[in-house]
Amino acid sequence: MTAQPTYRVKRVYEAPDPADGRRVLVDRLWPRGISKQAAGIDEWAKAVTPSGALRKWFNADPLTRRAEFERRYRIELEADTAREVLARLRQQAAAGPLTLVTATKEVERSHVPGTPR
After folding, report:
1. Rounded to whole angstroms, how far apart are CA atoms 45 and 86?
2. How many CB atoms within 10 Å of residue 98?
């Protein structure tokens, strides 16, 4: 039986920790005010982030657009490149610690899932 993939979610502004394992940035844009060295990022997975247009649309009214954002984002994640990256991230999570890193202030309301998918 294979291990269930698990991962953590952290803000990029939190200091890297050895327990993070592999750190993957899951934002389309590089976070403001932090150097690549300070962020401690092992991979930048742009292919699994919401498109600029979807992000802009959602941010205009996140309270009422959440359900539709999730639907549209899932469609974007069906693209071949995104599917390949997601499969690789699942393999990495099954192999050892994986932390998805984002600059989002409210992680629980972001595009980053709180539990493995």
Report:
1. 9
2. 23
Q: For 69-85, how does the pLDDT look when each residue is reduced to its tens digit (9 = 90+)?
A: 999 999 999 999 999 99
Own/partner pairs for 102-105, CB < 8 Å, 24+ apart? Answer: 102/9, 102/10, 102/11, 102/12, 102/25, 102/26, 102/27, 103/11, 103/12, 103/13, 103/27, 103/31, 103/32, 103/34, 104/11, 104/27, 105/11
* pTM of the model as a whole: 0.86
In the predicted structure, residue 114 carries a pLDDT above the cut 60: no
pLDDT given for residue 116 in this prediction: 43
Cα separation, 47 vs 58, in Å, equals 18
